[in-house]
Every structure is written in C-alpha cells, then in structure tokens.
Design brief:
It is a single chain. The chain is α+β, with helices and mostly antiparallel strands. The protein has a single domain (2-96), classed as Alpha-Beta Plaits. Helix content is 38%, strand content 35%. It has helices spanning 16-33, 64-72, 74-83, and strands at 2-10, 37-44, 55-61, 87-96. It has a 4-stranded antiparallel beta sheet with strand order 2-3-1-4. The longest helix has 18 residues, at 16-33.
C-alpha cells in the first residue's frame, strides 16, 4: 500500500474549511472513479499553531502505478485547479508500507 499525504498553507487560513467543503463533491467523484484509490480524505488543521499546515489531504493507493494513475487523472487535475489559487505553500510525502 502507498500512502500519499499533502499539506498546504493557504491564503486565508480562516477559509480552509470552506475550501474543503467546496471540494467535497469532487472528492466523492474521485473516490468512486479512480481505480486503485483506497482512501481519500481532506480536512483542516485544528491546532492553529504557526508551524502547522492549514489543509491536509490523506490518501492510500493499492500500488505505485495506482498513485501514478491518480496523479494524471482528470479529476485530480480538477482538484489541483480548484485549490491552486488559494495555495501559498505545498509539502507532500509518498511512502510504501
């Protein structure tokens, strides 16, 4: 299994929940339509400390090939386009368990 985690700082941390809510329909489509995607969730940080991210995406994939398929999938590209204007900083990690 591959875990893919992405953390973002956004332009208006107070709007983080709205950004997530706005992506909810798209995320549901991704869960239903992207082969090899096991788990996908997006949420906001509750700690509100300076060193924390504002939004985090957690996902699990069956294989590296499934993650590659996800990265190129039109729905994933739609999510990137939706969040893109709000993102100030992005950090990610992929690893196999």
């Amino acid at each position: 299994m591959i875990k893919h985690i992405v953390c973002w700082k956004v332009d208006k941390p107070g709007s983080s929940k709205q950004y997530c809510d706005g992506a909810a329909s798209l995320l549901q489509q991704m869960r239903e339509q992207i082969a090899g995607l096991i788990t996908l969730e997006i949420n906001t940080d509750e700690s509100r400390i300076d060193s924390s991210a504002d939004v985090v995406l957690y996902s699990e994939f069956e294989s590296w090939d499934a993650l590659s398929h996800y990265n190129d999938h039109p729905l994933h590209l739609d999510l990137k386009a939706y969040l893109g204007p709000y993102i100030l900083e992005r950090i990610m990690a992929d690893y196999e368990i």
